[in-house]
Specification:
The protein has 64 residues and is of the alpha+beta class. Strand 2 and strand 3 form a beta hairpin. The longest helix has 14 residues. The termini are far apart.
């Protein structure tokens, strides 16, 4: 086993035991379109985008 595998195994074990309360599984969806007012944040959504790997979303917000 290499160093990376050792660290990954240690992290897996830590999140299964000591840190199990640090992660919460959830499912949700929310639609936000550019130019709309977001009532949760109280801000105007200027732009919504996704990274090329489709792993994360970003929102550009502006105070009204």
């Amino acid at each position: 086993m290499g160093l990376r595998d050792d660290l990954q195994a240690d992290l897996d074990e830590a999140f299964d035991d000591d840190l199990d309360d640090a992660v919460t599984t959830f499912t949700g969806s929310r639609t936000v379109v550019s130019g709309e007012f977001d009532p949760i944040d109280g801000m105007l959504v200027v732009n919504v985008g996704q990274d090329p790997a489709k792993a994360t979303w970003t929102r550009q917000l502006r105070r009204p």
